[in-house]
Design a protein that fits this description.
five-stranded mixed β-sheet, 10 strands, globular, Nucleotidyltransferase, domain 5, 337 residues, 2 domains
């Protein structure tokens, strides 16, 4: 079975062909057209520019994905597309293209939630990862803990009440002069600093909940940097990176530990763009090892937005009969929230 997965929720246009053999997924192609160089000029994603870039790339990368996989449209059993959540203009490009392609070629169309796609990325190469399990999706737009009841059945246990971890990393990296996206550079710089040098407020909310809040942490870091600059005091950006990263990682790890204790889960999966952060991966891997819990995380190449994860998530929706017609629309919000 061949599924074409299409992703355009933010600043990357991606098309991928995934083949399912005996319930096992194999990536036959995974083409990603990145817009990093475009948005770097503005220090972040500009929605209108992102939409235009998707329009320019979507047809080309779809043909590339099919060619690399060695198949044609006639060989496809389904087309899966991210329909929510994300930037509405960006989503509409992928949704409308996928609808047209599916309708013109009489191919079943499957709408996919972007969050389910990130979790699906963890299944590639991990035959022992099967529901039920606990998952953390952490990216530029999401920081949420889910109980994965089945491949397409999720319950949200906790989430951020304002900003997401990825946005919090990128914002502080930008203030320190790092080019967009700054998360990777901040991750590297943190190894050169002292994680105990600066006291920042934890993003883990107090009380009997599994929620986060990153706005106060961002404000605290911004005030530290700006107030010292105004006073002419030289600060160590390495110490800021180390202390800030340590604060984020410890806050997330504490909530994951609480979620594992409450749920009794024996398996945990980390996914999303920030899953590529080496400090967070290491901290959650240590937690799982300490608790005797199986730990899964996608390869770093699959942590960011990509069509392969959408294709696989689409396969699970396909099995449940969750198809869409030409009336399918995009939504900026996830029904999981």
């Amino acid at each position: 079975m061949y599924i074409l997965g299409m992703e355009s929720s933010c600043d990357e246009t991606s098309a991928s062909v995934v083949e399912i053999i005996d319930e096992k997924p194999y990536i036959r192609s995974n083409i990603v057209a990145s817009q990093i160089d475009i948005h770097r000029l503005y220090g972040g994603v500009v929605p209108e520019i992102a939409s235009l870039a998707h329009i320019e790339a979507v047809s080309r990368i779809t043909h590339e994905a099919l060619d690399e996989a060695g198949i044609t449209l006639k060989d496809l059993d389904a087309i899966a597309v991210t329909s929510s959540p994300g930037l509405i203009g960006a989503l509409l490009v992928g949704v409308n293209f996928a609808k047209s392609l599916a309708f013109a070629n009489n191919i079943p169309l499957v709408p996919v939630d972007h969050i389910k796609g990130h979790v699906a990325a963890a299944y590639f190469g991990k035959e022992d990862l099967k529901p039920p399990f606990l998952a953390l999706v952490v990216s530029g737009g999401h920081t949420s803990i889910y109980h994965i009841r089945d491949y397409a059945d999720f319950d949200e246990l906790g989430t951020t009440r304002d900003d997401a971890a990825g946005e919090a990393f990128d914002k502080i990296a930008r203030v320190m002069g790092m080019p967009y996206p700054g998360g990777a550079a901040l991750d590297k710089l943190a190894y050169d600093g002292d994680p105990k040098a600066i006291k920042f407020p934890s993003p883990a909310l107090h009380g009997d909940n599994l929620d986060f809040s990153f706005s106060g942490l961002k404000t605290s870091a911004l005030n530290y940097i700006n107030s010292n600059a105004q006073k002419g005091i030289e600060i160590s950006y390495a110490d800021v990176a180390a202390s800030y990263t340590d604060c984020v990682v410890k806050g997330i790890t504490s909530k994951v530990e609480a979620a594992l204790a409450q749920s009794g889960a024996t398996t945990f999966a980390l996914s999303g763009g920030v899953a590529a952060n080496s400090h967070l991966r290491a901290s959650l891997a240590r937690l799982c090892e300490k608790k005797g819990i199986s730990f899964a995380c996608p390869d770093k190449s699959l942590c960011g937005d990509n069509g392969a994860m959408i294709a696989l998530a689409g396969y699970y929706e396909y099995k449940k009969g969750n198809f869409a017609g030409t009336s399918l629309n995009a939504s900026a919000y996830s029904p999981l929230d």
